[in-house]
Amino acid sequence: MKVVVIGAGASGLSAAIILKRRGIDVTLIEKNKQVGKKILVTGAGKCNYFNEDFRSCYFTSSDKMRLENIITKEHVEATKDFLRSIGIVPKIKNGYYYPSSLKAISIQNSLMTEVKNLQIPILYDTTVKRITKDKHFSIYTNQEVIEAEVVVVATGSRAYYDTEEPSMILKSLEDLGHTVMPIYPGLVQLEAKGDYFKEWAGIRLDARLSFYSKDIQKEVVGELQLTDYGISGICTLILSNTLVPLLKEKNEKITINFLDPLHIYSVEEAREYLVQRNKDLPNRSLDELLDTILDYKLTNLLLKLAKIPLHTKMTMIEKEKLDVFLKNLVSFPLTITGFKSYKNAQICLGGIAIKEINTNTMESKMVENLYIVGEALDVSGECGGYNLGFAWLSGLIAGRGVFLD
Ligand SMILES: Cc1cc2nc3c(=O)[nH]c(=O)nc-3n(C[C@H](O)[C@H](O)[C@H](O)COP(=O)(O)OP(=O)(O)OC[C@H]3O[C@@H](n4cnc5c(N)ncnc54)[C@H](O)[C@@H]3O)c2cc1C
Do residues 147 and 3 lie in contact, with contact meaning Cβ atoms separated by under 8 Å? Predict the structure, then answer.
């Protein structure tokens, strides 16, 4: 065969469609019975497939400089054009792109319709176990050995379905001379140390998470879920991309600002705010002053941790105890000890090092005519359509890059 794309997910489909539109014979190999299975679970079934503000600062990778050469303005615009060209009408909410139908299946359908119209053959139920290269590539599958002139690897990661097939491909790429940057679950819930989690489990709120180390400073603002093992929610998932690789070495400390939605960032600002509120609403206890600001379960827990009895008036609270309470409101300390499994993760961190990829074409610098795209690479996006966005974008570059000269 001329060109084989391994993996019919977001990146593989975009590569194959662009290749076929260029008149190049291409075949897709897919281990499942359908294309784009993972697309169906994205964005809670609505598929947040791109973001208006698509820049490399929303990604982690061991080589951010090179990533900037992949995520260029031209590539971003070309990706938007491509998505329009397969018929996707966007609904854009705060910069997040969804299909207007708000149904992930309609993205899968649009891709499949284009694949059918272009008559791109797909080998379903075909798992690639190994790739070798002599003059041409030999692709060892559970069905047969397929020879190909050009291979595009678009096999994604083991996140969510936690099957071994994407890892088998990474091993093969390693055997072909590539470096695999360490793989961890990404966009994943974080486990923490504490004996009070039963009391805050189930609370959802907006907050700011902050992590400061010698080399890294990361702050994330948004939806947070307090759970019986620690924290979840979009804020947590985004922070996990920074924290998870560090947790291999040791626990890490973060802080939570529960008053961030009120633009209160310090103990003094919190004190001033509550003193004023106490004046505006006399005859209320501290917990009553926090009504409609915090979930009462969280207020009760913060009072308990500061050893302040429920229903105490602010003026009656000892300064030290009030200070502890105010500090916990704006800078609640949390020791992160671990993270949930691949099954809970939306993506995998790590993958093929992008220093080994030609950023103009996505061709491997180690193996001629081998292209690598999507999540198989060491490129991990935040929540907000960045991971699917990178899959389409890198697939598009490879689709344009094959047989360029
Ligand atoms: C619950 C959940 C929600 C998410 N929500 C969003 C979101 O809203 N927005 C966003 O941008 N991203 C989201 N993501 C992440 C996004 O889905 C992935 O980053 C993206 O699908 C990666 O695209 P890909 O083409 O690299 O890999 P995939 O889409 O995973 O495609 C890889 C394909 O290769 C096939 N394959 C793998 N190994 C083999 C093999 N050995 N032989 C043959 N075939 C093989 C797989 O079956 C699969 O079809 C979410 C992920 C999850 C799990």
Answer: no
- Asked whether residue 115 is assigned to any structural domain, the reply reads yes
368 shares its domain with 255? no
Ligand 1 centroid–CA 5 distance in Å is 15
Residue 267 maps to a domain: no
Residues of the chain with pLDDT under 70: none
Q: Which of 63, 37, 241 is nearest to 155 (CA)?
A: 37
**Same structural domain, 73 and 112:** yes
Domain with residue 205: its CATH number is: 2.40.30.10
Which residue matches tokens 């093992």?
A: 229
The count of structural domains within the chain is 3
CA 255 / ligand 1 centre spacing (Å): 32
pLDDT of residue 133: 97
Tens digits of residue pLDDT in 261-297: 999 999 999 999 999 999 999 889 999 999 999 999 9
**300 in a domain, yes or no?**
yes
Q: Is the beta carbon of 29 within 6 A of some atom in ligand 1?
A: yes
Q: What DSSP assignment string belongs to 40-77?
A: GGGGGGT---EESS--GGGEE-S-HHHHHHHS-HHHHH
Do 130 and 149 reside in the same domain of the chain?
yes
pLDDT in tens, 58-92: 999 999 999 999 999 999 999 999 999 999 999 99
| CA separation, residue 194 to residues 239, 240, 245, 333, 383 (Å) | 19, 19, 22, 10, 27
pTM: 0.96
Pick from 40, 171, 387, 396 the residue to mutate for probing ligand 1's pocket: most ligand atoms within 8 Å of its CB.
Answer: 387
What's the 197 CA to ligand 1 centre distance in angstroms? 32
320 and 238, same domain (yes or no): no
User: Does the beta carbon of 185 lie inside 6 Å of ligand 1?
Assistant: no
Please give the distance, rounded to the nearest whole angstrom, from the Cα atom of residue 375 to the centre of ligand 1. Answer: 7
